[in-house]
Amino acid sequence: MQEDLFSQATESSQSTQPGRLDLSIIVPLFNEAESLPELHAWIKRVVEAQGLSYEIIFVNDGSTDNSWQVIKELSEAFPEVKGIRFRRNYGKSPALFCGFRRAAGDVVITMDADLQDSPDEIPELRRMIIEDGYDLVSGWKQKRYDPLSKTIPTKLFNATARAVSGIHNLHDFNCGLKAYRKEVVKNIEVYGEMHRYIPYLAKNAGFTRIGEKVVHHQARKYGSTKFGLDRFVNGYLDLMTLWFLSRFGKKPMHVFGLLGSLMFLIGFLAIIIVGASKLYALSQGIPARLVTDSPYFYIALTMMLLGTQLFVAGFLGDLISRNSAQRNDYQISEEI
Predict the structure, then answer these.
(1) CA separation for the pair 76, 68 (Å, rounded)
(2) Is 285 exposed, middle or buried (0-12, 13-18, 19+ CB in 10 A)?
(3) What is the pTM of this model?
(4) Which CATH architecture has domain 2-248?
(5) C-alpha to C-alpha distance for 195 and 201, rounded to whole angstroms
(6) pLDDT class for 14, splitting at 50, 70, 90?
(7) Which of 17, 60, 164, 282 has a CA-to-CA distance to 233 between 20 and 30 Å?
């Protein structure tokens, strides 16, 4: 799917700048034409003051305004500007995937295009990667200019993400302003709506040095937010999927087989108890109703059936996992 997305993207330039780049800045966007010139000028001023070589990759996620025209004009005027254009709106995760694939800088910065992320944070984010040795640094918008309808669910979402992922030092998983070592973005796959959990994806890939920096959050200057409350429901479901895949993706039998075996065993023991109770009553001459009149018989039978189905599901999952092209996809940091 991700390959199809990339092949459908129209790029303003097919080649990257020759030689080594210090910095790649990836900006996914949807209908942000008004903010792009100002954002580019701001990034250019900050980065060139540091004397860094850089590229800015705007990923136009199927915008219906003239965002792509603005990107083309910037690309013609400034060689550091590159662009990727989707034929339709796919979402932020596919935009980041294609941006990561295109990025050539030693450090990769992601930020939103709505001017709520400040480019002034870029030098310090890069320093934390280069000098402090972090693999990933996530921004934390400690003071937000958002309504309570957004900030309260965000706090609950982040608390859940910390508990499930085990990354307890992050307060804002979904902050768009992040810095990465190049190896991180080349070894993780952002798909679906998993951009919310990039730190978790990085951790699962073996990049455990994850830090956080308090960043300035600005009020939106142009347009309106593109996200609704449904993202919190989808985010919870994605988190559960990611947790399960990280724990049992390569060994589904360990969870389904265990649960199935326990349910079958409990149901089987319950059947024995129901039958033994019937036999005891008959041996003592005590009137006893039919086994099939007992609700416990049907509960026990249902548990045995569900247990068998879970066990078979785990077995089939193991067969699929063992035949997967990614069954031996392990992260190797270096070889000698």
Answers:
(1) 12
(2) exposed
(3) 0.71
(4) Alpha-Beta Complex (3.90)
(5) 9
(6) very low
(7) 60
